[in-house]
Amino acid sequence: MNPIAIAIHGGAGTILSALMTPEKEVMYRQALQEAVEVGHQILLQGKSSLEAVEAAVRNLEDCILFNAGRGSVFTHEGKHEMDAAIMYGATGMAGAVAGVRQVRNPITLAKTVMQHSEHVLLVGDGAEIFGRSLDLAFEPDSYFFDTARHEQWLAALKADQVVLDHSALPEATTDRKFGTVGAVAVDQFGNVAAATSTGGMTNKKFNRIGDSPIIGAGTYAHNATCAVSCTGHGEYFMRAVVAYDVACLIEYKGLSLAEACHYVVHDKLVKQGGEGGLIAINQLGDIVLSFNSEGMYRASKKNQEPTYVGIYK
C-alpha cells in the first residue's frame, strides 16, 4: 500500500515567538494539529487525497485564527472577498473561485466548480449564484466579523495602506503575516491533491485577487511530480508561477521534491523580492515545508507517525 501523508499551512511571514503570547501560541498549535489530523483521518479511512485536503482546509476556514473563510480580513469596503482553489493530481482536474462573499467554505465551492461545472475558475456574483444553486452553505456578514481584524482594517483605512499582515497594525511593519491556508496530501492509491484558501489582503481595493485561486501560481497537483500549496505575497507568486515551477523542476530537470522547493523558495523568489513559503508532497509521501520568512504556521502527518506542528524557523 502506498504511504499516506498530509501537510497543511496557515500562513507565513514575520512570525516571532517574541510577538506571540503563550496563550495565542497554544491556540495556533491546537488549531493546526486538529486540522491536519482531520485530513489524516480521512486518508486512514481509505478515502481520497482530494477529500482529505478539502476537509483540512474547511477546518482551517472555520477557525477564526486564520485569514480564510470565517477569519477573512476586511476589504477597503469593509466586506470579505475570499479566494480558493483545489486540484487533483490523478486527473489534472481543478476548480477555483475568486472574490466570493458570504460563502462559509470557499474551498468546497471550488471543489464544486471542479466536479459540477465545465469550468475551472468562477468569480464574484457568478460563483455565488452557482454555489447557491447547489445549496452550499452561506453566512451573514456577522459570521465573518472579528474585532482584531476590524481594528486592523480601520488602521489600514486611516493610513490608506493595503496590508499583507493579518494580525498586526500597518505601522508594525516588522510583523507581516501572509494569511492563507492550504493543504497537500497523498492517499493510499498514490494520488496527490492540493487546496488553498484565503481572505486576501486587508483593505484590498478593486477586487484584487492573489495567487491562491490561480492554478499553477498558488495551487498545483500532478501525480507525476507533486502537489503544492503556497502562502506569501501573491503578486510575486503569480509572476513566478511558483507552484507549477516546483513541479516543472522535478519533471524537466530531475530535481528531488526538496531540491525543487528549496531552489524556488530560497533562490528564485528571494531574488525577485518575494517573501513567503509553500508546502509540497509527492507520491512517495515525501513532505516539504519550505519558507523564506521568519515563520510559517504548519503541520504534517505521515502514516502513523507523530503529528508535527511548527510555527517559527
From TrEMBL:
Annotated site (Cleavage): 179-180
Coiled coil regions, renumbered to chain: none
GO biological process: proteolysis
UniProt cross-references to Pfam families, sorted A to Z: Asparaginase_2 (PF01112)
Domain of life: Bacteria
Residues reported in the UniProt entry to bind substrate: 208-211, 231-234
Active site (record annotation): 180
The protein's name in its UniProt record: Isoaspartyl peptidase
Organism: Adhaeribacter swui
